[in-house]
Design goal:
- This protein has two helices and three strands; from the N terminus they run βαβαβ.
- It has one domain.
- Strands 2-1-3 form a three-stranded antiparallel beta sheet, with no helix packed on it.
- The chain has 87 residues and is of the alpha+beta class.
- The chain is globular and about 40 Å long.
Length: 87
């Protein structure tokens, strides 16, 4: 059964809701962590601030803005407020 995230989004989180399209999706919720990982820094898993794994159909609103384009391009999520995902 799909879950809906109820916590308020973090500062710099994406705007709007997104539907998860892959099982077990997890991502760092801190934009600074995304930047550090992209720069090649090897952060231990416990320091990455990863969200709990999401199931297909879950709605999320805490994806950092600086990761959102990648998540959309890779087909990991789609906009939840349009039937076709905004295509």
């Amino acid at each position: 059964m799909a879950k809906t995230r109820t916590k308020p989004p973090k500062k710099n989180a994406s705007t709007g809701a997104y539907e998860v399209l892959v099982p077990g999706l997890t991502y760092p919720t801190d934009p600074a962590t995304v930047d550090r990982l992209r720069a090649g820094e090897n952060l231990p898993w416990a320091q990455r601030g990863m969200c709990d794994p999401h199931d297909v159909g879950d709605r999320v609103d805490d994806i950092p803005k600086n990761y959102l384009d990648d998540a959309l391009a890779q087909g990991l999520v789609r906009r939840a407020d349009t039937p076709d995902g905004g295509a």
